[in-house]
C-alpha cells in the first residue's frame, strides 16, 4: 500500500471538526484575531508542556499542530517544520517561541489544510484492498487490522491519536468493521 494513503488517513485521524467547518481565512488577519490565535496556541502548548518549562518534545509537534487545525504531512513535519523550530541540533525539544512563530504563520496562511474527502476515501480504499483477504475492496476495513497498521507504520499514530480516531470511525455495532464511507460523510 502506498505510504501516501497511510499519511492521508493519519491526517484524517487528527482532523479537528471545528476547523473543517470554517471558511478559509484571509492571509492577513487583524491584531485582535492574531492575539486570539496566539492565546489559543499558548493554551494548547501548555497542555503538552507538562513541567511548565516552555518546551515540548519534538514528537508532539505534529499532534499539537493538528489539534490547532494545521495538517502537515509527516514528510513536511520532519523535513521542513521541525528543522525550522529546533534551533539547536542537539535537542529533542521545541521552545514555545519557535513553535508559536511557525504555527501562527501556518494557521494564518492556511498552509497545511486537511485532506479532501476524496483523498481520504482513496486512502481508505487502498488500505481496504491491502487488508482484505481477497485483495478486493469490501467497503469496510477490519478494526483491529486498521489499528495495527496505523500504529505500526514508520510515522504511526501515537496512542492518544489512535484512540481518538477509532472513536470517530468505529460504529460501535459489534461488527469489528470500519465502514469508511460512513466516516467520510460524518466528517
Characterization of the model:
This protein is 59% helix and 5% strand. It is elongated, with a radius of gyration of 18 Å. It has 187 residues and is mainly α.
Structural class: mainly alpha
Profile the largest sheet. 2 strands, antiparallel
Return the average pLDDT rounded to an integer: 80
Number of strands: 4
Secondary-structure element order, N to C: HHHEHHEHHEHHEH
Main sheet strand line-up? 1-2
Overall 3D form: elongated
Q: Which key features would you list for this structure?
A:
187 residues, mainly alpha, two-stranded antiparallel ribbon, 59% helix
Overview in brief:
The chain is mostly helical and 187 residues long.
List the helices and strands and how they pair.
Elements: H1 3-13, H2 17-20, H3 31-48, E1 55-57, H4 61-68, H5 74-85, E2 93-95, H6 96-109, H7 117-131, E3 141-142, H8 143-152, H9 159-169, E4 177-178, H10 180-186
Helix pairs in contact: 1-7, 3-6, 7-10
Amino acid at each position: 500500500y502506498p505510504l501516501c494513503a497511510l499519511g492521508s488517513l493519519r491526517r484524517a485521524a487528527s482532523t479537528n471538526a471545528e476547523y473543517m467547518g470554517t471558511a478559509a481565512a484571509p492571509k492577513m488577519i487583524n491584531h485582535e484575531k492574531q492575539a486570539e490565535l496566539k492565546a489559543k496556541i499558548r493554551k494548547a502548548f501548555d497542555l503538552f508542556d507538562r513541567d511548565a518549562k516552555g518546551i515540548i518534545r519534538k514528537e508532539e509537534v505534529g499532534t499539537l499542530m493538528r489539534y490547532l487545525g494545521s495538517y502537515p504531512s509527516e514528510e513536511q513535519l520532519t523535513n521542513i517544520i521541525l528543522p525550522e523550530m529546533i534551533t539547536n541540533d542537539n535537542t529533542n525539544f521545541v521552545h514555545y517561541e519557535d513553535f508559536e512563530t511557525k504555527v501562527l504563520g501556518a494557521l494564518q496562511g492556511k498552509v497545511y489544510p486537511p485532506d479532501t474527502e476524496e483523498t481520504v476515501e482513496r486512502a481508505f480504499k487502498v488500505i481496504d484492498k491491502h487488508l482484505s483477504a481477497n485483495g478486493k475492496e469490501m467497503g469496510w476495513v477490519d478494526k483491529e487490522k486498521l489499528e495495527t497498521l496505523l500504529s505500526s507504520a514508520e510515522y504511526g499514530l501515537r496512542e492518544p491519536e489512535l484512540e481518538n480516531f477509532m472513536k470517530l470511525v468505529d460504529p460501535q455495532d459489534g461488527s469489528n468493521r470500519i465502514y469508511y464511507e460512513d466516516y467520510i460523510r460524518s466528517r
